[in-house]
Amino acid sequence: MTDITADLARTLVADQFPHWADLPIRPVQRQGWDNRTFRLGEDLTVRLPSGAAYVPAIAKEDRHLPALAQHLPIPIPEPVATGRPTEAYPHPWSIRRWLPGTPLADAEDIDQHQFALDLAAILRTLRSVPIEGPAGGAHSFHRGCHPSAYADHVQNALRTLEGTIDTRACQVIWDQAMATVWARPGVWFHGDIAVGNLLTEGGRLSALIDFGTCGTGDPACDLQIAWTYFTGPARRAFRDAVGLDEDTWARARGWTLWKALIMVAGTPGPEADTQARILADVIADPLA
């Protein structure tokens, strides 16, 4: 895989967008999995997919983010330019407007209850956006589809973790998710509502970034943050405010179970410890 560095980003910008060649380039502090992101001057970012699987997001975001931005009350990424593949870097890449703010993962003094209400309102608005979008599928890593797309992952993880976790409780949660479907027309979903993709200013939600897994379909995938971040009364407030039914929450719990299981089963280290805590919350879920 190509080593994605600031020097590579600097070369790509200089070759393809020479009018920005003099701007300083530096990595952003918190990097995602799908892309490597670099600050370009003060107002722009360079975003390079980390592998071929993430390339479809470039064209999808270029097409749909400007339209979505017209309907959402907080900023989302604004595409500015799209770079072409080269011998040094084999994928298309993008330049976006820089959005200020602190990722929720790094923010302090957050009022979880208020944040739950703010995020729920944004997700309700996103679901109501009246423009056509791509149905969930491979481009969204099956977000927006039924969680059964990952049934084999769940069963393999349960076999691996037998005797170390309550696999019977996990199977019950998974079976409940499998027994429901989204029977209504598809709605817009973000696909990765996570603490790294929610920006904050003054303790409030200020921007929503990284729409690489967005599309239209079942919005259950956008509810995982109920267990991955919110706790206690804030989790209940989020559930009440987001305006979705019991079946959708059963699938959301299934989505969260899937991610936690595969991480605990296959990723040693601090991330596995975090996911083990999430798995315990999913099993003991007071909302169920």
Please tell me about this protein's structure.
With 288 residues, the chain is α+β, with helices and mostly antiparallel strands. 40% of the residues lie in helices and 15% in strands. The protein has a 5-stranded antiparallel beta sheet, sandwiched between helices. It has a 3-stranded antiparallel beta sheet with strand order 6-8-9, with helices on one face. The protein is globular.
Per-chain topology:
Elements: H1 6-16, E1 25-27, E2 35-40, E3 44-49, H2 56-69, E4 79-83, E5 93-97, E6 102-103, H3 112-127, H4 151-161, H5 167-178, E7 187-189, E8 198-201, E9 204-208, E10 215-217, H6 225-228, H7 232-242, H8 246-266, H9 270-283
Helix pairs in contact: 3-7, 4-5, 4-8, 5-8, 8-9
Series of secondary-structure elements, N-terminal to C-terminal = HEEEHEEEHHHEEEEHHHH
Largest sheet, described in full? 5 strands, antiparallel
Q: Provide the residue-averaged pLDDT.
A: 95
Measured as a percent range, the helix fraction is: 25-40%
User: Structural class per helix/strand content?
Assistant: alpha+beta
Beta strand count: 10
Rg over alpha carbons: 19 Å
Provide the low-confidence segments as ranges.
none
Strand content: 5-15%
Overall morphology: globular
Read across the widest sheet, the strand sequence of neighbours is 1-2-3-5-4
User: Total number of helical segments?
Assistant: 9
Report the span from N to C terminus: 43 Å
